[in-house]
Amino acid sequence: MPATDYQGSFLGRISIRRNQVIAMDGNHEQELEDLELFQKHVSDRFTELLSPPDDATPADALLSISWLRKLLDVFLCCEAEFKAILLMGRDPTQISKPPLDRLIPELLDRAVKFLDLCNAITNGLDSVRHCQKLAEIAVSALDQNPIGDGQARRAKKALVSLMSVINQDDKEGASTKTTERSWSFGRRGGVNKDRASRSLYWQVAKNWSAAKQIQAMTSNLVAPRGAEASGLASPVYIMSVIMVFVMWALVAAIPCQERTGLATHFPVPKQLSWAHSVIGLQEKIGEDWKKKEKKGMAGLLEEMQKMEKLGLNLIEFTDSFQFPGETEKVEEAAAQVAELAETCRRMEEGLVPLQMQIREVFHRIVRSRTEILDVLEQASATLV
Prior knowledge:
By secondary structure, the chain is an all-alpha fold. Helices cover 66% and strands 0% of the residues. The chain has helices at 3-17, 28-50, 65-87, 100-142, 149-166, 170-175, 193-196, 210-217, 233-253, 276-291, 302-320, 327-383. Helix 2 (28-50) packs parallel to helix 10 (276-291) and helix 3 packs antiparallel against helix 9.
């Protein structure tokens, strides 16, 4: 069943069940059923990401633009179901009791860091678009028959610039002038609902680190045990893991400031049934990250990896080219130019929708964070 289909049926189920406020103690069996269904949906969705269908194309490869868009779709579906479990038709005081009085503030703090990383990813996608434009210049110059010395020089200039951008250090890349942005929340995660309504704006602080931001998100991320494992602490933990994983995968794939020291995994207990696919994806991406010798600006985005490989080959071709060129080398270069053109086409089709999706995720988290804060305020007022 498509993710959106069983998301709709799940939300309907929660809504019908909770059309009036029911005390948690009298509704424990239903809570357990809802939690089991949520865990099953999480497991199914991440299994699809780990093991794509047989008819999947190379464009759907792990950490491709298409794959990242599917990952964000999964995130949005899981987040909607999580919020329904946590808030829909529930007495506000229930989420202000232990252990939620500790876990919910930690979740809200992760949400702030998540938003900061969304902004960093948006900045990084600007760099990816810049690489795409340089590659398109090279394709335009070399997609000629015959290729002249002037076209070869023009292509080489664009390709050398492309390699320079790809091989920039993360810190250097962060200082590259793009669009000016400012933080959407206070740097320490203070509650400010007016600022929370802003769009994505970001200005990079020199000492800001994507790797450290991910590490901070994993702070206090501990699986619930005992009786807590069958209560609301469990979906809070699951959603926290999903938030960390999504941002970790995006940071590994897309240029971000200071990714040095990015962890190759974060601990998730293997005995949790819903976590098997998340752990499998962690292992695959972590291995790819370790294999990459230069953890520079390019990251692990499939299209950028392909662009780097083709760019280096075509620089070698243009370096030694003299009109009219050796037939065999010209034919080989033509095939590589066609492959680079296809990569640029996929980027042209996918990058803007990916940016729009990240914006959607950003605003979803802003809204959800505000809603949870409102419920906590209601709970405080009730207890006074």
